[in-house]
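stage 2 :: seqdesign
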């Protein structure tokens, strides 16, 4: 009888233990499943956030690319506008220069019926068909003009000279022939007491509105700034000199016939 009771107690204890173990295992399983579901939910949320971030990054990349494209377009437009503006400036300057040139060509500065010259002017030598720079010197009695390679010869019983009027050692030669009007003796500054015999020729020249024949002494002026010097014999009675101005008159342009 005692043995049966003992066996019953033992079996009851065993059933209770197994039941407790089963209950404990189910709870653990439920906790694990809950944790897994939570992790899965978190992973899903992270994946969604990552996808959204990628979409946002791609959108930003597109916006950046568009901004760069707009910047390049604006740069090109600015460059085009700058070029157009520069072209307009050049055109306006050219027009202003042309207007100024026309004004200078149509106006012959005068004072009390006398032509006004600056201290330097362009002089047109008809035989050379060329303009040269000339300095107006009221202290010089006669005028002089650059002449190198002077050769004297006789033509029809008269003295003539042939010379190169070009005011440059490397420039193309411009040869002029003219009859000798007379000879003058010029005191040489390099050799005191010595005189240099130079021919004088008559040339047709023009400065502004003044055009006539005038005498010029032939001399080598290559070392000087001006190939022509205009003295009092040229300017007397018809010309006034304004030493505060230069090149009042434009270059003379002969009309082609």
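stage 2 :: out
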């Amino acid at each position: 009888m005692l043995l049966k009771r003992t066996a019953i107690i033992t079996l009851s204890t065993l059933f209770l233990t197994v039941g407790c173990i089963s209950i404990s295992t189910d709870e653990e399983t439920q906790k694990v499943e809950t944790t897994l579901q939570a992790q899965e939910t978190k992973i899903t949320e992270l994946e969604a956030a990552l996808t959204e971030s990628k979409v946002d990054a791609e959108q930003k990349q597109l916006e950046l690319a568009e901004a760069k494209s707009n910047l390049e377009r604006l740069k090109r437009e600015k460059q085009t506008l700058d070029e157009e503006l520069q072209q307009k400036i050049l055109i306006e300057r050219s027009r202003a220069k042309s207007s100024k040139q026309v004004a200078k060509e149509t106006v012959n500065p005068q004072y009390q019926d006398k032509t006004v010259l600056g201290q330097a002017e362009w002089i047109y030598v008809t035989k050379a068909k060329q303009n040269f720079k000339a300095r107006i010197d009221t202290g010089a009695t006669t005028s002089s003009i650059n002449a190198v390679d002077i050769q004297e010869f006789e033509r029809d019983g008269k003295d003539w000279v042939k010379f190169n009027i070009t005011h440059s050692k490397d420039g193309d030669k411009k040869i002029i022939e003219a009859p000798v009007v007379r000879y003058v003796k010029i005191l040489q500054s390099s050799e005191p007491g010595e005189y240099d015999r130079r021919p004088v020729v008559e040339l047709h020249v023009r400065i502004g509105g003044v055009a006539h024949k005038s005498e010029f002494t032939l001399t080598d002026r290559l070392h000087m700034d001006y190939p022509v010097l205009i003295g009092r014999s040229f300017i007397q009675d018809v010309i006034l000199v304004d030493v505060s101005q230069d090149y009042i008159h434009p270059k003379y342009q002969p009309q082609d016939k």
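stage 3 :: structure notes
- Residues 102-107 have pLDDT under 50 and may be disordered.
- The helical segments are 2-106, 232-235.
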